[in-house]
Amino acid sequence: MARIYLIEGPVGAGKSTFAASLATRIDRGVHIALDEWFTKLFSPDRPSTDLMPWYIERKARLLDHIWKHVQSLLAGGVVPILELGLVQRHSREDIYKRARNVEVDLTVYLLQASREVRRARVLRRNVERGPTFSMLVPTPFFELASDVWEEPDEVEMAENRIEIVSTEGLAHPGIPADRGG
Asked: 11, 10, 12: which is closest to 121 by C-alpha?
């Protein structure tokens, strides 16, 4: 059965590093990061005011486009590793449903770290602009994104294959060597 990996967690939890590391360990794994696509496609048009409605509408369109791309990758035997920034349950439920509808095995890694650790990572990433940097995350945006993050509850955890991964003590939260599929 075809497989998709979904990497989720609050901003700064280590999703990009984890997903990139997983892609190197999965045969024919390809990391698809929504933020990277979003930045390249839409940043030149970013408004100075009313950012959230602008962002939400474009993210919805981009998720639809990424899903079409995922289906093409699956048809070619590629294993998509999705980092989509689905901060609310209803957004994750949409991906769960899409995967069920095309009869794809979906494995979800939920990355967790304290707000303090995540804030420090984001501040460092903003300055260093290393391999996981796709956009500047100002402190107010970090706080807003952290406030709206909806942790999966017991029902969501029970209905989906979700593995919790703590990245709390990791400077660069890649996937441990004993994981990967």
From this structure: 12
Contact 153, 162 (CB under 8 A): no
Task: Name 93's Cβ contacts closer than 8 Å, sequence gap at least 6.
Answer: 156
C-alpha span between 168 and 172 (Å, rounded): 10
Q: Which amino acid is at 21?
A: S
Give the Cα separation of 87 and 92 in Å (integer).
Answer: 8
Give the gyration radius of the chain's Cα atoms: 16
- Flag whether the pTM goes above 0.70: yes
Are the C-beta atoms of 3 and 107 separated by less than 8 Å?
yes
- Residues 5 and 181: their CA atoms lie apart, in Å, by 9
* Per-residue pLDDT tens over the stretch 149-174: 999 999 999 999 899 999 998 665 55
Inter-residue contact 83 to 10 (CB < 8 Å): no
Each residue's pLDDT tens digit, 83-138? 999 999 999 999 999 999 999 999 999 999 999 999 999 999 999 998 888 888 88
56 phi/psi in degrees, rounded to 5 = -60, -45
b/e 47-85 (16+ beta carbons within 10 angstroms → b): eeeeeeeeeeeebeebbeebbeebeebbeeebbbbbbbb
Whole-angstrom distance between the N-terminal and C-terminal Cα of the chain? Answer: 13
What residues form DSSP beta bridges with 122?
Answer: none
